[in-house]
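User: I want to check something. If I give you two sequences, will you return the structure for each one separately, not as a complex?

Assistant: Yes, each is folded on its own. Here is the first sequence with its structure:
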Amino acid sequence: MSVMDRYLYPRVETPRILTMILWPISIMMIFHKSVILAVNGARTDDFTTVYNASLNFLNRQPVYAENYTTVDPHYLYPPSGTLLMAPLAYLNPDQARWTFIAVSVAVLVLCAYLLTRMFGYSAASWVFPAVVLFFFSTETVANTLIFTNFNAFVLLGMLAFLMLMRSRNDLWAGVFIGLTLAVKPVLAPLLLLPLLQLRWKVFVTAVGVPLLLNIAAWPLLVDARSFIDRTAPYLLATRDYYNSSISGNGLYFGVADWLVIVLRIAFVAMAIFSLWFLYRYYSRTDELLWLTTSSGVLLTTLFLCSSLGQGYYSMLLFPMLMTVFLAGSVMRNWPAWLAVYGCMAFDSFGSREWEPFGRYLEYNKVTLGWSLLMVVTFCVLLFRWLDLRAAADEGAEDGSDSPRPVAPASA
């Protein structure tokens, strides 16, 4: 290369080009979703109910006295969550909400960093801004900020739990998942993972932290009993609004009860097979792939088959999506990413020309996305199991004594 060419056509490595492209776009996405959309807010407001409950708690007023027959957001956190949220009420409503949004954004960026490091990439790589950009382009992150919900902290607790599980810091792993359970029990299915490994120390703190917080909060609430008598039954009931679970979707569209039951059983069966296969073939050879994929299967099954599944819960599937960087990932195919589009896209399908069709897509996109993700995961693992069985049978027929493979070499 001549001296002139060196200055006219400076060489820049592709990773650096990607980093230069991704960071400014990512920063603007963060600014737009937080400073503009989140501060603007929306009709759905998860924060005001939390703030009012915190204020009532500090002023010794009833916390669980809402009218659950309305479709407005309700305060549903247990006494332990009320205790943890109470400091918000020391600020005025606007200050509290803006502070909560700002801390949530910082937590989401931290989560993107932790995911990047968990999968072996440095903060200087193009992967970090790519993960940040993906985060803030999704409906799950956007609506978590716009509705001002607690989900970002749940994701942080989940990532801390998975990372500490890998590093064998069992007591601390239990502390972080226990703190999320004290507010929202959505991560409870993940306790199956340490149970399969017989790591009992995790349960000491995972159960102990929310238990102690509830014991501390109970006498401070004037209507603690109402959480059990009124709020818990509401949480267990299926509602036909803001609910993307199979039962919620079926109730909204009038689907026959028997079909809803059959679908729920089918997805639970797919989850059982997937979890069995992942544990048998990956838990000892690739713990990162096992933990992240299994957590995704457990949570997607919960979203689909429980009484309540809301679209912005999809944030908790980010670790499973990051497995695309690993050999053996179930995410290395286009149907899996079509599923991700369904449950995470911020696009609206409301149509003036084709109103019924657009309405159907809008109300079903999250349910269809979760469902397709489960079907894809099940099919990928089922085909691998069939291939392993066929390979083992061929080895027996030709007299080969080669060991049975313990994990597929590639996706």
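And separately, the second sequence with its own structure:
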Amino acid sequence: MTSAPNTTPRQLFTVLLAGGLVLMVVHGLGRFIYTPLLPYLVADNQFDAADGAAVATWNYLGYLMGAMLAIRWHRIDQIRVMLPLFMAVHVVTTLVTTQTDQLTLISFIRWLNGVANGVVFVQAPALILEWLVWRNRASLSGLVYIGVGMGLLISSGLVTGTADLLTGAERWWPAALLSIPLAWWGAMKLRQLDVPVRQQTDTGQAVVNTPLLDRASIPLFLSYAGAGLGYILPMTFLPLLAKQVLPDEHALLDGTWVIVALCTIPAPWIWNKLGAKMGDLPALRLNFIIQLAGVVASVIWPGPLGLVLCGLLVGSTFVGTVLLTQRIGRALHPHQGPRLSAAMVALYGFTQMVGPWLTKQWLDAGGTLVSAFGIGVAALAFGLLFAFFVPRPEAWHSRS
């Protein structure tokens, strides 16, 4: 058995910072900057709301496909090659988006950007988790997701700060320019991480993966599916909903996304602490209840009160759902590592893709965006239900 290497606080900070920046780039400046951009792109007549939902669906399809690629490329030596490659894909696709108003090309580019997002969002946290586990610091793994919240806040600032200066495809320039140095530095730091390529048990034998799907993990996967479909509607359409239900010049037209971003930043730390204090599984159930209340509020009170509650409650929970579910899954299936993360993100990606597609069908059929949020309510209720069927990992492993 190899003893854990010594790790300084500076090394821990550098690795977590690199991971956070990488997630900030692909998730904040790649995926979720589209949410505050969407009302402006619609107002610029680049496309209408239904076409905007279709573009989002293409991006989420790419995310799903990227996560599935990450299942194939789950070994540490593969991650060291694929992570920098797909960070480059993110940068190039974002630059291309600045050059076109053609809907078909935008859809293709956003699909390819989603592929890069899916691969990186699996591989970067999984690589860091393996690095931390080897150093007996796995409890810090959730902190890397702070980068997601920072990305939401920065993306909001980039969009609103340049709203009167740019139009149409030009609105993507701030994200493209900021992505270049951050993507390069973060990817290079993670590529250099000292992580064993071959994992071994304490007895020195090669680890054998257990099945991903069994009576313990299936309810967790179903619960996670509900979470993916439930949170993606407000995370894609909340600013557009604000534009539809609020008067012109109202502070919440841009403020809803700022609320989401500000609440997302401390969320990983909060849910990390709650999981450690009350257990990851009870914390996950509480997380679902709070998140469900947020989406319900936007349906019952589709005005300032509902928008603020939705931003507060969804923003403060959705990253917690990710980190808690990932930890529970790893506890149920030790030694799965990146393969487990990839399977979880692939499922999450599929349900996120379904959300905007269902919204487009609903809008095309004459439904309203407010009523479409009811899909999110049903999905989160589904996820909450199955969270109560997930066994405690310690009880599962101690069964006779």
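Because they were folded independently, the notes below concern the second chain alone. Confidence is low (pLDDT under 50) at residues 199-206. The CA atoms of residues 77 and 282 lie 36 Å apart.
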